[in-house]
Amino acid sequence: MSTSKLVRRKIWSKLHEVAKPDTRFHLNFAEVIPDFEGSQTATDRLVELPAYRNSRFAFITPDNCLIDLRRRMIAAGKPFVMSTYGIYRGFLLIEPGMVPPGAELYAAWLDGMEHFAKPISLREIGQRGHFDFLVTGASAVSMDGVRFGKGHGFFDLEWGMFTEIGVVDEDTPVVAVVHDVQVVEDKLHPSETDILVDSIATPTRLIEIKRRATRPSGVKWELLDPEQIDATPPIQELQRMRGVA
C-alpha cells in the first residue's frame, strides 16, 4: 500500500471523532473533506496571516472546513474563485455586490455558491491576474508541508492548470486548514504532483513551514485518462488554449 493511502487510512480513523457529517456524503472521507470541531478557530489563525490581510484575489477550494473562511471573505468584500465539486462545472467567482447582506453564510455553502456566484473560465481567471494566495482543506498534511487530499488529485490538477495560465507560481502562498488530528508529525517525501503548503492552520496552532522542495508546474497530461478530461471542462478549455483540441 502506498504511503499516501496509509496516511489517509490512519488519519481518517481519528477524523471520525471530530468531523462534522456532510449532508450528502456523511463521513465518507474519500468523497468529502469535512468540516470539523474548531474550524472557526483555525480560520481565526488564518485571517491573521499577511497573505490573507493583503489579498485582493484568491482561490479557495470547496472543502467543508472552509465554509467560515468563504463567509468571512464574502463579508469583507474579498473576491475569490472556488472550484465546483470535482471541477465538473469548472470554477465560480464571488465578487463584492453579488451576495446581499445577511446571506453570507448561505453563499459560503456549496449550494449557495452555485446560486450567487458566476461561472468563470480559465481564460478569464488568467485575465484577472495572479492569485494572491490559495487555501485548501486536506485529508492530512505533514509538518513539512506535504498535503494529501481525498485521493482524486483535484487540487493538484487545479494547481497544474493555474501554473499553465500563469496565475500561481513558486512564491504563491498556499495554506492548509485542518484539525490537529490531520497533522502528520513525520516528515514525508513529496511526489512529483504534491503541492507543498506554506502554512497549516489548526484549532490550536499556526504552523509555518520552510519548504525544502519546489512545487510541480503544469498539468501532468500523461496522468489524465480520457474520461477525466471529458468530465472536466477547464481541462478541455486548456487544451483549446494550447491548440490541442
List the helices and strands and how they pair.
Layout: H1 3-15, E1 19-20, E2 35-36, H2 39-46, H3 50-53, E3 58-60, H4 67-76, E4 80-83, E5 91-94, H5 104-108, H6 110-116, E6 118-120, H7 122-128, E7 133-136, E8 140-142, E9 147-148, H8 154-164, E10 174-177, E11 183-184, E12 199-201, E13 206-208, H9 226-230, H10 233-241
Describe the structure.
This protein is α/β, with parallel strands linked by helices and 245 residues long. The chain has a single domain, classed as Rossmann fold (3-Layer(aba) Sandwich), CATH 3.40.50. 32% of the residues lie in helices and 16% in strands. It contains 10 helices and 13 strands. The protein has helices at residues 3-15, 39-46, 50-53, 67-76, 104-108, 110-116, 122-128, 154-164, 226-230, 233-241, and strands at residues 19-20, 35-36, 58-60, 80-83, 91-94, 118-120, 133-136, 140-142, 147-148, 174-177, 183-184, 199-201, 206-208. The protein has an 8-stranded mixed sheet with strand order 6-5-4-3-7-10-12-13. A 3-stranded mixed sheet has the order 9-8-11, with helices on one face. A two-stranded antiparallel sheet has the order 1-2. Helix 4 (67-76) links the parallel strand 3 (58-60) and strand 4. The longest helix is centred in the first third of the chain and has 13 residues, at 3-15. It is globular, with a radius of gyration of 17 Å. It starts with a helix and ends with a helix. The model has no long low-confidence stretch (mean pLDDT 92).
